[in-house]
Specification:
The complex is a heterodimer of chains A (303) and B (286). By secondary structure, chain A is mainly α. Chain A has helices spanning 3-43, 62-68, 71-103, 109-121, 124-134, 140-149, 162-190, 194-202, 207-218, 220-235, 239-246, 257-266, 271-302. Chain B has 286 residues and is mostly helical. Chain B contains 15 helices and no strands. The relative contact order of chain B is 0.14. The chains are: A mainly alpha (303), B mainly alpha (286). The interface between A and B is large, with 94 and 89 residues.
Chain lengths: 303, 286
């Protein structure tokens, strides 16, 4: 046998094994990711209802017209947007601040990180449940705020006032994810070479100047990553809002898009309409990923 | 002893401020956890008392009994905890196993279309679960897997992120070792089992912890597929328990403590993999 032929055969057998190892993934993702995705888009053009015996009829863009024209949908978009911004700003700033403080510590880093991270260990439902009790009119939150602001006996209506319910859900989220994103920032700051920071120190830059002129620009890959992660997390929030509304909070101010999809499908049984919202959510997330890719490419080009 | 110079004095001042800010932040962050622990041992009346007592005045460990027995005395929580353990650990195992299988195929074999396969799998990361949950639910209904473990587990058997991590990890695996085994006449499945899988410990552990926690936390999917009480998981039980009339606040916190114990034990014994998870994620994204 010529050596060349045997190499070819070897290659072919190797490539067969490659397919064999990849096959379970191909099957799984086709059935549980691609098919449902296509199905969701497909269904959004039909007047499909759950538990209905009638065959769903093709109705073109009618579901889209109905959803985009409904106050309910735009309310959900507003609720999700408000939530995302209301979580993003404090969460981003606080975790960056704490990461900067933690990395400049000499001792006790691990202890602080563990303490800040511990709420992230809880499941979302447990986190929401703890706050549900603390935000009760007779609960700890009122007592604490009244103690700090010296306004005894005022009920801040954490779970009954529309605006306050929104703020309450944001508090739960910021509290739960603070430590997680602090650690991401700590890791990011750790990757900045010490020599750069030492050089700035020798040049006489103070800690605040160093942070804004050296650390922050060099941290850009991490800040982009954290921003996108927070936004995506917030857009998909469900448990907190679900538990709060089940516990008696008003639905409309916290009727985020995922909660609306769930209710439209499972309570109103209107699968067509739910699929429209699902598709729109997907398109939005796709756009977000595209923006992220563009920014990270630009970063690579600059570095 | 010499007096501190001006710069040293500023530094000392700065570190005092820093320590105070961080200590205050840690204390505030830990308040709800302390509240949960304390309240789980108090009678409901005391939890809503003003001013709040951090250390219980009257102890009421019976809260835990109530939490496990449920308001109807059906002891459903025990069953639901068992369900969570079964579902989360099966998913952790299968995620590690299948992801390393596919990741190995993508990392160490050259075949036509490999890049397309890789890109296609990565693309599924962009699909939010909320978008596909209803079609998935309809698949499960059609397969008759409502209210079964299979229905709870199957859609999460593996995920793109796992494939990605395992591929990145295995790309650096020395190919010479694999070739040496091949020359010794080792079959490909055995190479995978005895050489590759044996040596992917750290990445596999991180992935397992990640997958376990994700499922332990999952509320949306069990809410869809498990209508029967005995097939619910912990998050779904908590929602039901909290929304019931006459739910006792102390018992609610006992439910919460019980649900959190396993993850906290996991966290303190495997904190390397918890905190490592975020590092892996970051490394992967860059």
């Amino acid at each position: 046998m010529k050596p060349r032929e045997s190499v070819g055969r070897l290659e072919r057998s190797r490539s067969k094994w490659g397919w064999a190892f990849v096959a379970p993934g191909l099957v799984f993702f086709s059935v549980f990711s691609f098919y449902p995705m296509i199905n969701a888009i497909w269904t959004s053009f039909f007047n499909k209802r759950l538990l209905s015996l009638k065959a769903p009829a093709f109705i073109g863009l009618q579901n889209y017209v109905r959803v985009l024209g409904s106050e309910d949908f735009w309310n959900s978009v507003r609720a999700t947007g408000t939530f995302t911004i209301g979580v993003f700003v404090p969460l981003f700033m606080l975790s960056l601040l704490f990461a900067a403080l933690v990395t400049s510590m000499k001792r006790g880093r691990r202890l602080v990180q563990t303490a800040l991270y511990s709420p992230a260990v809880l499941s979302s439902v447990v986190a929401a449940l703890i706050w549900l009790l603390m935000l009760d009119p007779r609960g700890l939150a009122n007592q604490f705020v009244n103690w700090v602001a010296m306004t005894p006996g005022i009920d801040h209506r954490w779970l009954s006032d529309g605006r306050m319910v929104q703020i309450s859900t944001m508090i739960v989220y910021v509290w739960k994810y603070l430590g997680y994103f602090t650690i991401l920032f700590v890791t990011g700051i750790g990757k900045i070479p010490d020599s750069v920071i030492e050089a700035a120190m020798i040049d006489g830059a103070g800690p605040i100047r160093r942070f804004f002129s050296i650390t922050l620009p060099l941290l850009r890959p991490t800040t982009v990553l954290v921003s996108v992660m927070i936004i995506i997390q917030c857009m998909k929030t469900f448990s907190t809002q679900y538990l709060f509304t089940q516990g008696g909070a008003p639905l409309a101010p916290v009727n985020v898009i995922t909660l609306n999809i769930y209710n439209t499908a499972m309570r109103d049984l209107n699968i067509g309409k739910a699929s429209v919202m699902s598709t729109l959510l997907f398109l939005f997330m796709l756009g977000l990923t595209w923006v992220q890719l563009r920014i990270s490419r630009k970063n690579e080009a600059e570095l | 002893m010499r007096r501190p110079t001006r710069i040293e004095a500023v530094n000392i001042g700065a570190s005092v401020i820093r320590a105070t800010v961080l200590a205050l932040a840690c204390a505030l962050v830990l308040v709800p956890l302390v509240f949960m622990l304390g309240a789980s041992l108090m009678p409901a009346m005391d939890i809503m008392k003003m001013p709040y007592r951090w250390i219980p005045e009257t102890w009421k460990p019976a809260n835990f009994l109530r939490a496990l027995a449920g308001n109807d005395g059906a002891w459903m929580y025990l069953r639901n905890i068992l369900n969570s353990v079964i579902v989360s650990s099966s998913i952790a195992v299968s995620t590690v196993l299948l992801s390393s299988l596919v990741g190995y195929g993508l990392a160490k074999f050259h075949f036509r279309g490999r890049n397309i396969v890789f890109m296609a799998i990565m693309a599924t990361m962009m699909i939010p679960f909320e978008t596909v949950m209803i079609p998935l639910y309809l698949i499960i209904v059609k397969a008759g897997m409502q209210n079964t473990y299979a229905g709870l587990i199957v859609p999460f058997l593996m995920n793109a992120f796992g494939v990605f991590i395992m591929r990145q990890y295995l790309i650096t695996f020395p190919s010479e070792m694999l070739d040496a085994a091949r020359i010794d006449g080792c079959s490909e499945p055995r190479i995978f089992r005895d050489i590759v899988f044996r040596n992917s410990g750290p990445a596999a552990a991180t992935l397992a912890v990640l997958a376990f926690r994700q499922q332990w936390d999952n509320l949306l999917w069990p809410l869809l597929v498990s209508q029967k009480e005995e097939m619910k998981t912990i998050p779904a039980y908590i929602v039901k328990f909290a929304a019931e009339k006459h739910a006792d606040e102390g018992a609610m916190m006992a439910v919460a403590v019980i649900a959190s114990l396993p993850v906290f034990v996991l966290f303190f014994s495997l904190s390397k993999y918890f905190l490592g998870g975020s590092a892996v994620y970051q490394a992967g994204k860059e």
